[in-house]
Amino acid sequence: MTNIEVYKELGTYERHFNQMQGIHRTLASTWLLGTFGGIGYVFSSHFSHPGAFEPEQVASLIALAGASGIFLLWILDVMVYHRMLVAVLKESKRLEAADHELPQLRASFETQALGPWRIGARRKISLFYALPAAGLWVAALALTRAAVGNGPLSQASGIWLAILFGCVVWMFMMGRPKDSQQTNELKNMELMQTLDDAWNSQDWDTFDKRHKKDVLVRWAG
């Protein structure tokens, strides 16, 4: 299989993983709107609350369920499909560095994804999920306090809400970019590998790009 055929196959995987991530973000948006609709219905005049359940308690449970659903969708999106997408992107980038007949897109993608504030795509995606989940957590806590005050039920609910808030914080932290030193080490390893491949294949264009002008290189041994 030629490099172009492999490159096309990798592009198919990229489109698939991008599509799957888009589906999960659509589901998260729909889930959020459904949560708002459920809370709005609870406080409408058409809602009849059975037994000891007050509208604030029911609305709090809906908000908690909404935040939990968004958190689960984040796991599938960022922790599963985004990681597979990054793996494919790295392989495509390696092919582009080795074969200059291929369009040099992946390096540009990485630069554009960072943007002016140097925030990676993974962290931005995590913010897409973390902000509404945190908002629902605050709403659930406020509704619980309004419904049961400072009683035992409020304390038990507060424990579960604290756990959920910890999940939101963890969600954001997992979306942070890797340590800069580790990133630089990986980048240097990749540059050295492409330099070695260029030397072995006598790809002098790539070899020249890996050195400054008039540089003096000494090989050990």
Average of pLDDT = 77
The value of Rg in angstroms is: 25 Å
Order of helices and strands, N to C?
HHHHHHH
Biggest β-sheet description: none
What gap, in angstroms, lies between the N and C termini? 36 Å
| Global structural class | mainly alpha
Number of DSSP E strands: 0
Strand coverage percent? under 5%
Q: Any idea what the shape is?
A: elongated
Helix content, binned percent: over 70%
Instruction: Catalogue the unreliable spans.
Output: 177-182
Specify the number of helices.
7
Concise structural overview:
The chain is an all-alpha fold. The protein is built from seven helices and no strands.
Describe this structure in words.
The chain is an all-alpha fold and 221 residues long. Helix content is 78%, strand content 0%. It contains seven helices and no strands. The chain has helices at 3-42, 55-98, 106-114, 121-148, 152-174, 180-201, 204-209. Helix 2 (55-98) packs parallel to helix 5. The longest helix is centred in the middle third of the chain and has 44 residues, at 55-98. The radius of gyration is 25 Å and the shape is elongated. The relative contact order is 0.11.
SSE layout:
Layout: H1 3-42, H2 55-98, H3 106-114, H4 121-148, H5 152-174, H6 180-201, H7 204-209
